[in-house]
């Protein structure tokens, strides 16, 4: 599988562990740090340890697993460890984990001493096809996802789908939602291929194809002025549901499960507003309902979801902005949706 | 006084309040926020209020005065206020204050929703000639100055030396140290002119000249790979003394007072190592001793100062790196100084 060239950095798909080791050696870093969570230090780190040890001069930083770690307190904890370890400007941070580790490791590194180098070795499907590509770093504050962060590119990304072997099925499904999204917004053929594939463990070829799609979009529009907004499909509503679930009952929804719901709701809006055909809406709804568990919420939370949406960074001037589809494989950005439309879309999901 | 063009942003010196108002109007911001501290909201804000009120749609955020506010807790406080005010990506932050406000306001804005626009209206001499120019933002963690931050340029800087009328004399002296530094590293004629001027209230022309000098350096080397390091003259030792004083007895030293000490010490090192003449060392020492109060510290803290220096971002690989002078008006970067040399330099200051 070919290395993908992103905005001044490579995304490796073959011999990724060796590529990482070679990268660190070439970089002449004064030292490096490996950031893991309690799961990736058990399931992923051992696959690297022997080779890392040949390099010497590194330290491990481990945080708790899960979205609850992606906040300023853990971030301060990592900063303080870097201070204690006397990490200088020529240090490197290696983020070994899912999107929580790559997002918050990226933010921590991009602000430590006004920015040290970092690389990602993403170990969840979601982080491989999405979080590790595109230069968005971030943490949550007050339960608002990614409200604080920077746009900073990693120096390289090392993808090894063998890490997915230990990933729980629910986490596979979480990443899969983004892959399906890439098909829906950009590539109908890819969407069709995905629907027919064995999705319990997506092949490296499918992962590669998603990264090519996402990378193309972020390269054209790094700071999300226009076409990058295509990636927000499913996310205006999905993020709100995810945020609500995070506050109400942590771990009840993964990111992908939330945006699968978001994509059903926003496909409904697309059908209403931007010309998505009824058959396409049905096909999308049926596919997500086949793959993803149903999530129950009641009408009582509609207002709360709406007020969460208003706080979302994608939305301005007190208006809710959605990326919709005009057909499978074709997106349509900057659609203002009214409260009534959004509530109708929730109804559509709940009725399904 | 001519507007200075920096890295994609203007630095105004005339009609600065009107220029700010015009800038906000042109920018079509969804809303804006003015960040002040308890002193600038009394001494500076009233000079703007009438004009700001013609614009509408803004809120004030006030923090405590002083370096103790330049930390992550206050930063979180500002983020949360922006969240509560539902600041979106098209919001603007106006930093009205000294270097504490411009540094931490810049950091807060550069990370809120991955970056919103900000402008500086610096109200101390130090922030006018130094902190507001060059795109460094930052906060202190664990008493280590500016350890966390970003390189992000403001959209504009509005300098009005009339704000200096209410500034305590000690704060004037603090900024003056940076102006004297600009002369020492880059412009012997400017140094001589400064020595002969009335320094109780530096003229707009002198302030302008300092900004031209600093701006030239940061434009050539925005991320401090080489010539920007010239600005570190006096700061390797000065920062250590400032950090020590901050931990030990807050408010006992201003930034400028600390780096004035640093410049005496580092001029001594320059005489020892990089060819600064004995007469020049004497001239520098006498000038600072005439203008600045002596600061007493004992040999007992030398080791502590040294270990603070090792944690400084300017230093790598466990070595202390100083920018020195080869003559008045000529700098020399990347001089490794040993512990013994540094201790000798402290001795030189204390003996003076
Ligand atoms: N930056 C971006 O552009 C972007 C894009 C999408 C999502 N995200 C962010 O990514 C985060 C979600 O990412 P995620 O789903 O990877 O979450 P995660 O990092 O929390 O990983 C999910 C779980 O899998 C565990 N895990 C990771 N790798 C494993 C492995 N190989 N074997 C066994 N267990 C493993 C983790 O410990 C965790 O418990 C969210 O915070 C989201 O906001 C960011
Ligand atoms: N970013 C950079 O490149 C850079 C460069 C130099 C210094 N700095 C930072 O700047 C900070 C020091 O700046 P500072 O000396 O301006 O500190 P400051 O912001 O704390 O201001 C000093 C004092 O003056 C008060 N004040 C401000 N304007 C006033 C006015 N017009 N009238 C009366 N009182 C007023 C403030 O409330 C404060 O009490 C340090 O944190 C330093 O690290 C940054
Ligand atoms: Zn997503
Ligand atoms: Zn300084």
UniProtKB/TrEMBL annotation, chains A, B:
Keywords: Cobalt, Lyase, Metal-binding, NAD, Nucleotide-binding, Zinc. Its EC number is 4.2.3.4. Residues 61-172 form the 3-dehydroquinate synthase N-terminal domain. It is an enzyme of class 4 (lyase). InterPro entries: Dehydroquinate_synthase (IPR050071), DHQ_synth_AroB (IPR016037), DHQ_synth_fam (IPR030963), DHQS/DOIS_N (IPR030960), DHQS_C (IPR056179). Its cofactor is Co(2+); NAD(+). Residues 175-315 form the 3-dehydroquinate synthase C-terminal domain. Catalyzes the conversion of 3-deoxy-D-arabino-heptulosonate 7-phosphate (DAHP) to dehydroquinate (DHQ). This is 3-dehydroquinate synthase.
